[in-house]
Amino acid sequence: MKDEIGIGIVGFGTVGSGAATILFRNAELIARRVGSSLRVKRIVDRDVTSDRGLALPEGVLGTDLQALMQDASIDIVVELVGGCEVAKRIMLDAIDAGKHVVTANKALLATHGEEVFAAAHRAGVDVGFEASVGGGIPIIQSLTGGLAANRCVSLVGILNGTSNYILTRMKCEGQDFQEALAHAQAAGYAEADPAFDIEGVDAAHKLAIMVSLAYGTPVTMQDIYTEGIQRLTALDIRYASELGMTVKLLGVAKHHGESIEARVHPTMIDSTAPLARVDGVYNAIHVVGDAVGDVMLYGQGAGSLPTGSAVVSDVMDIARNVRQGVRGRVPPTSFHMDCRTPVRIRPMEAVTARYYLRCMVPDQPGVLSRIAGILGDHAIGIASVLQQARREGQTVPVVIMTHRASERAVQTALRTINGLASLVSEPVTLIRVEDQEP
Ligand code: HSE
User: Fold this and answer.
1) Is 106 a catalytic residue?
2) Alpha helices of 291-391 — where are they, by DSSP H?
């Protein structure tokens, strides 16, 4: 049994300093839980002068990555530099050096996860990535452990805190998108370049990781239809409220036997659904298992200590294995590496949903019936229509809620409607409605 397990951390930013703080602050508790001490031997970062609010023992913080890789007393390397190429190199170098690895890097895993997992499998080392999805929410261990006895019927989640914060402000303060984004940046939630957050890419990275674990299939980013929140308007958020609905950026995965749906887009859900009540930067994931039924996980999807908590939980998990002299007990793919079967991801056009359509139309007799006619031609049934009071000489918003229809039919109908300048003054706004909520 090893009495002491050595840890090396690469990247001493927000998450790195959170993980290090927990490892030092809760060292005694962690040692009692693991049965061995976890000793932070080296932390490597380019910046060794900024104050992270944490006093490190002399000689721990430095810039020499090679020294960390060659340090035989380091059992586990924690990669927290972000980005893809450099992070991948660090992971693969650590694996080559026979070290176990932990990362919070969802972009890396969603795009190069298969390569990293295969290298770890060959080298016989463990990979932990709890912090890659949902910050401090233990969703990865839930999928690989607590829920492992279940066929996953569906996974629906609010997976990006920044966009959820923006949508919450748009709903609760009536702000438009740009104003809410500026608030998110001022509050330090959104990056100066918030593209991955608001365009749905960050949420898609996280959904790809979850789908791969839940269904035992490799997933590429091209498999996941991705649409962000950047085109949502205050008007649509208001209409949603009038309809008793709330707009959330959801990652949705559903199992259909031979295929899986996997998509990220703004979605209207009933305002009484649990996910509709997840506000601000919080994340939540609703899993339905065939045996367990509904499970909801809720918590802080980002931030130094919440994400650090997930990183340290992986370090502890691996340290327990190191202590017992076992490895590869839980494969990083959740399914045994030799027992994965690729599952087809349904193309978006084959997905069906109900739809919210907002058409800006001239207030003239016959316009609505022409739009209804085009929808009818594509077998799209109308469930309800909302029309604003008349404004002389201006276009008015007409909101149509459809019955369930196929994405292919709706997109084809909208191409026709959008092409008729006499019918709409701007492209029709479409928001999908998810009604499988608990
Ligand atoms: N940028 C992410 C979010 C944080 O806003 O949720 C960590 O994944």
Assistant:
1) no
2) 304-324, 367-377
